[in-house]
Design goal:
alpha/beta, Rossmann fold, Jelly Rolls, 2 domains, ten-stranded mixed beta sheet
């Protein structure tokens, strides 16, 4: 089962939202993320969360679920709901942008839920962000921007091939050395590392794909 969740960060374009709705089995608005779905003329299957930001009183027929507890944010609530419905693959829009603390929180949520799905991807008009396991191989267009992000702090034993700035048994660590804004030089990129939470950004979105 494939779920689409729209969160409350920078809203997706209508084109991106429509593309993802067309392949989703269930469409979930995470609180204010429901505004983006309804605002473009689409109907979510459900809008849920603490609903402190979802104030559509003039849209009758929208199914809502209020979850008042504050130990989790609205994205966590939406992902948990998706799992309960049998979701194995999930694309999430609107997770990045706006408040930086919300962006960091949503990256933490990605780490938390990564192992619970067969795939979970944060997508926007710049590209895809997701966690990878070692070893990982990606088929990609030459020239694609790639960023390797050590979310769990320091990650050692990193070896990458097929990129402009390859690593050979080296380390990346937040605040010390990062792996952002690399570029694919071959159609197949390969990465290995000792362990930890490594995120990969693949710049294939509409705002980068033609550059």
């Amino acid at each position: 089962m494939h779920a689409l969740i729209v969160s409350g960060g920078t809203p997706p374009t209508k084109k991106l939202l429509e593309t993802e709705i067309n392949v989703a089995d269930i469409v979930i608005g995470a609180d204010s993320g429901g505004h983006a779905i309804i605002g473009y003329g689409f109907t979510p299957d459900i809008v849920l969360g603490d609903l402190d930001s979802f104030h559509y009183t003039n849209h009758k027929g929208i199914k809502t679920l209020k979850i008042a507890e504050q130990e989790t944010n609205d994205l966590e609530k939406a992902l948990a709901y998706a799992l309960e419905q049998g979701t194995r693959h999930c694309v999430v829009l609107g997770t990045l942008g706006k408040r930086i603390d919300h962006t960091f929180k949503n990256l933490s949520v990605l780490m938390q839920f990564h192992s619970k799905f067969e795939s979970i991807v944060y997508r926007d008009e710049y590209g895809d962000t997701f966690l990878i396991e070692s070893p990982y191989t990606l088929d990609v267009k030459v020239g694609t921007i790639l960023s390797f992000i050590p979310l769990s702090g320091k990650i050692t034993g990193i070896t990458t091939t097929g990129v402009e700035y390859p690593l050979t048994n080296e380390a990346l660590e937040i605040g010390v050395r990062d792996g952002t804004s690399n570029t694919a030089t071959e159609p197949t990129v390969h990465v290995e590392f000792d362990g930890g939470k490594m995120a990969l950004f693949v710049g294939t979105g509409s705002k980068l794909a033609d550059k």
